[in-house]
Amino acid sequence: MPDNGSATRPLRVAIIGSGPSGLYAAEALTRHDEVEVSIDVFDRLPAPFGLARYGVAPDHLALRSVRNTLETVLDDPAVRLLANVEVGTDISVEELHRFYDAIVFTYGAATDQRLEIPGEDLDGTISATELVNWYCGHPDAAGERVEAAITAATSAVVIGVGNVAVDVTRVLSKTAPELDHTDMPQHVLDLLAATSITSITVLGRRGPAQAAFTTKELKELGELADADVLVDAHDLALDPVSEADIEGERRRERNMEVLEEWSTRTPARGRRTIRLRFFSQPVEITGPDRVTGVRVERTRLDADGSLHGTGEYTTIDADLVVRSVGYQGMPLAGVPFDEARGVVPHAEGRVVDDGTVVPGEYVAGWIKRGPTGIIGTNKKDATATVRSLLADAAQLPRAAQPDPDAVTTHLSERGVRYVDVDGWHAIDAAEIALGESKGRPRTTLHDREALLESARRGVRD
């Protein structure tokens, strides 16, 4: 084994974030024989898996099953889970350097981007992040706010044409039997079953050729049990820029085929109607103190692909607006941050501060490259960062207190109730038992105290 700075102990690595990027980084570290490692994976939430648990739509069971793969990483003897620990609050980055030779930041992009238009903060306007957090059972979900917005709504506008926009549209449009097989919290299922929403309009600023959704997710809208999907054929007429964007791009070609078929459909009088509108730019969310509509300007693409308003305005009646225009990374105290791009600056995964590499600090995932790609994209990204870390192993500054017990003692002395892998297995068992009691495979625990109590009770038992 090459010298990694000490022949008497493993390289101590902290990974901040237990989502796909963090666990793929841990997996990559454990699979290299040239450096023995001891890894602690931190997460501020009591349960692991990040967006694989709290971002993937609950009705996409095959995609959510990636958690089974990630769980095998947590069961590796070289990996320890320290969940319910918030780096920056419970322990600082500076303190982490006392216990670890290297730190890998993989904490993602957890907030939403804003539209920056008038009326964005009216009651009845929520972000897709808030809605997804709520129906996935995120402990920090703005439950009261989301539930008040949905309960009062009969018509909705979803702003954005990515997969998340399609996800929230589909979830809001499904019947109760279509959602019964999911692991949504029971109160979420109950509210969605009782919603009075009958109309959802999905807005895209550009044309169908530029839409970011994938064909599989798009097609699912047309397969709903009690909803009609409508598309105006006028929106599907392709300008030269759109024709060039589509040419040779199979995903976009397939999307156009789906949309064109929908534009010829006769509505089947479903309970709900979904309208996809392109070249529609929201300029104002209207209402005195609560949403009553969205003012939209028709747009066009110039020959160079730039977007311009045409000066043609319409107002869409709505009492619920969900903005789904992207995620945004946030700074972490003690870590360099590029405010303009919402990422941690880096060079081949090595954290960079004002042009200088920070020894022993690395970054992977969305907080490294921005909120792009699919779950699988994070594996390649994390592996590349780990490659840089391993190349640096012999030169890394060595931790002053590398004993694994040192950091847990530090946390316990501060009263931090961390959840280890046994605690997670107890939470997992409690969710399965709760689901079985209701005739479902699993029911997600959404309350932080309930999660922590399940972890403690399972470990005691």
Describe it for me?
This protein has 461 residues and is of the alpha/beta class. The protein folds into two domains: 11-110 and 329-419, NAD(P)-binding Rossmann-like Domain (Rossmann fold); 113-326, FAD/NAD(P)-binding domain, CATH 3.50.50. It is 36% helix and 21% strand. It is built from 18 helices and 18 strands. The chain has helices at residues 20-30, 51-54, 61-64, 66-74, 93-99, 128-136, 143-151, 163-173, 176-179, 186-194, 215-221, 240-246, 250-263, 366-369, 377-392, 404-413, 421-437, 448-460; strands at 11-16, 37-43, 79-83, 102-105, 111-112, 125-127, 155-159, 199-203, 227-231, 272-277, 280-286, 293-301, 307-317, 320-323, 327-328, 346-347, 350-353, 356-363. Strands 3-2-1-4-18-17-16 form a seven-stranded mixed β-sheet, sandwiched between helices. The protein has a six-stranded parallel β-sheet with strand order 6-14-7-8-10-9. A three-stranded antiparallel β-sheet has the order 11-12-13, with no helix packed on it. Strand 16 (346-347) and strand 17 form a beta hairpin. Helix 1 (20-30) packs across helix 4, helix 1 (20-30) crosses helix 15 and helix 8 packs parallel to helix 11 (215-221). The longest helix has 17 residues, at 421-437. The protein starts with 10 loop residues before the first strand and ends with a helix. Mean pLDDT is 94; it is low at 1-5.
